[in-house]
Amino acid sequence: KNQVEQSPQSLIILEGKNCTLQCNYTVSPFSNLRWYKQDTGRGPVSLTIMTFSENTKSNGRYTATLDADTKQSSLHITASQLSDSASYICVVSAENNNAGNMLTFGGGTRLMVKP
Amino acid sequence: GAVVSQHPSWVICKSGTSVKIECRSLDFQATTMFWYRQFPKQSLMLMATSNEGSKATYEQGVEKDKFLINHASLTLSTLTVTSAHPEDSSFYICSARLALGFDTQYFGPGTRLTVL
């Protein structure tokens, strides 16, 4: 069964600090991994997408890493801002040739950045 | 970039009434749309997959007669919650996929449903 586990479930940090969110997955066959940011009451917005051959990808203050061997990914947020307060969801896509949904969602990490 | 809209953004209804939620892909044609439900502090849970011009495929445990899905065009899918009850109160999010073989889903902003 395909699964995506995220840790921690929630995290509180002070503004300006860095943090790292973790994602472990057992999805096969692996296609790609995405990190989404979901503000309260809004739909998810894509931050990064990584394929099997990519180890690191950055989007501004967000840097995602992928270790396909250990099936782990991390999302590092640098110099956090109050607007970073949101849920961060790790989504892993499996290769699939039919019309079904290929995505497995993690439970998300709720980040709160305090002044 | 691909934009997906939902309408309404929030709705409050009485128990026993039906509510329709629209999902539109604004600048691309979506052969497949997905409907998710999200309860507080939980991640998205797939309810059904909707392909244009055909019947939706529902996930296990989702009542197809309660959650009616219509995907009449390549840019519009609707979810109707029939005879809504308070336990149906949730955040409903749709996503749209460009074509078969593409796994990128573009998410809508969500619809908050509150059933009194």
Describe the structure.
- The complex is a heterodimer of chains A (115) and B (116).
- Chain A is mainly β and 115 residues long.
- Chain A contains no helices and 11 strands.
- Chain A has strands at 3-7, 10-14, 19-26, 30-38, 45-51, 56-59, 62-67, 72-77, 86-94, 103-105, 109-114.
- In chain A, a hairpin with an 8-residue loop joins β9 (86-94) and β10.
- Chain A starts with a strand and ends with a strand.
- The model of chain A has no long low-confidence stretch (mean pLDDT 92).
- Chain B is globular.
- Chain B is mainly beta.
- Chain B has no helices and 11 strands.
- Chain A binds chain B through residues 31-32, 36, 41-45, 49, 89, 93, 96-97, 99-103, 105-108, 110, and chain B through 4, 6, 32, 34, 41-46, 49, 51, 57, 91, 93, 95, 100-101, 103-105, 107-110, 112.
Order of helices and strands of chain A: EEEEEEEEEEE
Using the CA coordinates, give the radius of gyration of chain A.
14 Å
Given helix and strand content, the structural type of chain A is mainly beta
**Number of helical runs of chain B?**
0
Portion of residues in beta strands of chain B equals over 45%
Taking pLDDT < 50 over at least 5 consecutive residues as the criterion, the unreliable ranges of chain A are none
**Could you tell me the number of beta strands of chain A?**
11
Helix content of chain B: under 10%
Find the biggest chain interface. A-B, 23 and 26 residues
Mean pLDDT across the residues of chain A is 92
How far is the N terminus from the C terminus of chain A?
41 Å
Largest sheet of chain B, in brief, is: 7 strands, mixed
**How would the global form of chain A be characterised?**
globular
- Biggest sheet of chain A: strands, sense, closure? 6 strands, mixed
Treating each run of at least 4 consecutive H or I residues as one helix, how many helices of chain A?
A: 0
Strand coverage percent of chain A: over 45%
Instruction: Extract low-pLDDT stretches of chain B.
Output: none
Average pLDDT over all residues of chain B: 91
Q: Could you state the oligomeric state of the chains shown? A: heterodimer
